[in-house]
Amino acid sequence: MAATRQTAAIELTRTAQGRRDAARIWARATAVRAGRADLLDDVDRALAGIDAQLALPDAGLHLARRNGLPIGFVLLVPLGTTLHVGRLAVDPSHWDEGVENDLLAHVEKHARMLDFTTIDLWVVADDGAAITRYTAAGFRATTDVRDVAGRLQRRLELVLY
């Protein structure tokens, strides 16, 4: 008999520990994706970026946990009628376990509950795997592009209403 996948519990957090947990996840995920083991513990830099986005009006950090342990997060920023995904990351030890899908479903439910018409996010333009995951979740590429530190990013959006 096949094992049933355990859905991550996702909740809004406003604690310093929640912010540090998210920063640790971000540091690990970006380091592994870049193949940079030297950045695995770069939590302070990740925390500075998370805190900068949380300083935006009504921004919120939603932490995913499984068995009480933090395994992923999404940082949401309301921008008019759009709910912007400022950051979304899953700890590399939980990649391919469906946590990102749990987070995206949470974002959509949250956006619908608060009557946002659109969800958007920026993704590195040559990250085919991420674009495929977001497209499978209903996001569509827009014509909006930007250069961030020498990497081209494309804006994706999910129109709700």
Provide structural commentary.
The chain is α+β, with helices and mostly antiparallel strands. The chain has a single domain, classed as 3-Layer(aba) Sandwich (Aminopeptidase), CATH 3.40.630. The chain has helices at residues 16-34, 43-54, 99-113, 128-136; strands spanning 9-13, 60-66, 69-79, 82-90, 118-124, 140-148, 151-159. A hairpin with a 2-residue loop joins strand 2 and strand 3. Helix 1 crosses helix 2 (43-54). The longest helix is centred in the first third of the chain and has 19 residues, at 16-34. The model has no long low-confidence stretch (mean pLDDT 94).
Question: Which terms summarize this structure?
Answer:
35% strand, 7 strands, single chain, Aminopeptidase, seven-stranded mixed β-sheet, globular, alpha+beta, 161 residues
Strand content: 35-45%
CATH architecture: 3-Layer(aba) Sandwich
Sequence of strands across the biggest β-sheet? 1-2-3-4-5-7-6
- Tally of discrete structural domains: 1
Q: Any idea what the shape is?
A: globular
Q: Any idea what the radius of gyration is? A: 15 Å
Please, what is the average pLDDT? 94
CATH class assignment: Alpha Beta
Total helical elements: 4
CATH topology (level 3) name:
Aminopeptidase
Helix and strand content put the structural class at alpha+beta
> What percentage of residues falls in helices of 4 or more residues?
25-40%
Order of helix and strand elements from N to C terminus = EHHEEEHEHEE
The counted number of beta strands is 7
